[in-house]
C-alpha cells in the first residue's frame, strides 16, 4: 500500500533540480570562456618561401638606380638647306667619317640654273661697275683739265698785273690799264676758287656713285656665293669627325629644307642617359657620384644634367663618364646606373621590403628569437636606398623580419615558420 510523500521530500527534489540547472549553466559558461580564449591555429609558412633579413645598425649609403643607354656627347643631325632629290648614298651607316666626307648626293636642276643666272648677273655687275668707273674717271679728268687751264690763266693774269704795276710806277702806262689788269686777276682768282670747289665736289660725287655701284656689285656677288654654296651643299658632308649612325632617306626621295638627312656621332666621347623613377629623383643634385654597369664592367661617372620634366613616370638624367669605358662600349648600349645620394651614419636599416614607401608606416612580420613564429608589427620607415631602407621605430638591431610580399596573409597576425 502506497504512502503519501511528505513535504520535505518534495523540497529536497526541487532543490536538486535547481542545483543541477545552476551547475549546468556554470559549466556552459566556463567552457565558453575557455573556448573563446583559445587562439586559432597560426598559418604555416615554409622558411624557403619568404625572404627573411636581419635588422642592422651602421652607415647606410643611399643610392638610386635606373636603366639607360650610352649616348655620344656630340651628335650632329645633318639637314638640308635646299630642296632636292637624293641621287646616292655613298657611305653606309656604321662607317667612320671625317667632317668633309660626302655622305649624300643631291640634285636640283633649278638651283643649278639659278647659280648660272647669278654668275651671269655677277659678270654684268662687274662690267657695269668698270664702265661706270671709267666714265667717272673721264669726268674727273675733264674737270681737272679745266681747273688746270683756269689756274694757268690766273697765273698769267697775276704776272700781267705785276708788270702793269711796274710800268705804272714808272709812268709808262695809264691808270686804267693797271685797274683792268687787277680786275682780270681778281676775276680769275674767283673762277679758280669756284673750279677748285667744283673739282672737290666732283671727286665726292664720283666716290658716292662708285660706292652705289660697288653695293650693286657686292649684292650680285653675295647672291652668286649663296647659290654656289647651295649647289656645293648638294654634296652633303658629315660636318664632324665620327661615325655615320643613320641615313633615314633613300635614293630618289625628294627632300625639303630642314629635313634630317643623317645622324653622325662621335663615338670616342660617350655619356650615360639614365631613366630614374620620379619618386626617387627628388634628392638628385648635379655633381653626385655615379656608377655605370655596362654588363662588361663598371665605370665611374658624375651626374651632369637633370631633365626638369617627367616623362612616363621617369626623370631623364645625363651621367658624364669619368672612368675608362671597357671594350665593347658603344652608342645605344643598354646600361644600368646607380647614383650615390648621401651617407646616413649610425642608423638602423634593413633590406627594402617588397611593399611600402619611404617615410611611411607599414606592417611587417617580426620573427621570435627562436625563429619558429612571426608576429605582425608596425614599423616606421625612413629614407630609402636601392636595396636598403632606414628603420625609425618598431624594430631593434638584430631583429629578423619577413620582407616578402605578405598580402596573402592580410588576415593573419602571426605565422608559424617551419
Look at the structure and give the mean pLDDT. Answer: 85
Order of helices and strands: HEEEEEEEHHEEEEEEEEEEEEEE
Point out poorly predicted stretches.
none
Quick one: CATH superfamily of the largest domain? Answer: Efflux pump adaptor protein, beta barrel domain
Report the CATH architecture of the largest domain: Beta Barrel
Coarse shape: elongated
What kind of sheet is the major sheet? 6 strands, antiparallel, barrel
Helix content: 25-40%
Strand residue content: 25-35%
Helix-and-strand structural type: alpha+beta
Strand count: 21
**Highest-level CATH class of the largest domain:** Mainly Beta
For the biggest β-sheet, the strand order reads: 3-12-15-14-13-16
| CATH topology name of the largest domain | Elongation Factor Tu (Ef-tu), domain 3
Radius of gyration: 53 Å
Termini separation: 76 Å
Determine the number of helices (DSSP H or I, runs of at least 4 residues): 3
Total individual domains: 3
What does this structure look like?
This protein is α+β, with helices and mostly antiparallel strands and 418 residues long. The chain folds into 3 domains: 47-71 and 269-417, Efflux pump adaptor protein, beta barrel domain (Elongation Factor Tu (Ef-tu), domain 3, Beta Barrel); 82-106 and 234-265, RNA polymerase II/Efflux pump adaptor protein, barrel-sandwich hybrid domain (OB fold (Dihydrolipoamide Acetyltransferase, E2P)), CATH 2.40.50.100; 109-230. 36% of the residues lie in helices and 34% in strands. It is built from 3 helices and 21 strands. It has a 6-stranded antiparallel beta barrel. A 4-stranded antiparallel sheet has the order 4-11-9-6, with no helix packed on it. It has a 4-stranded antiparallel sheet with strand order 8-7-5-10, with no helix packed on it. Strand 13 (289-293) and strand 14 (298-311) form a beta hairpin. Helix 2 packs antiparallel against helix 3. It is elongated and about 205 Å long.
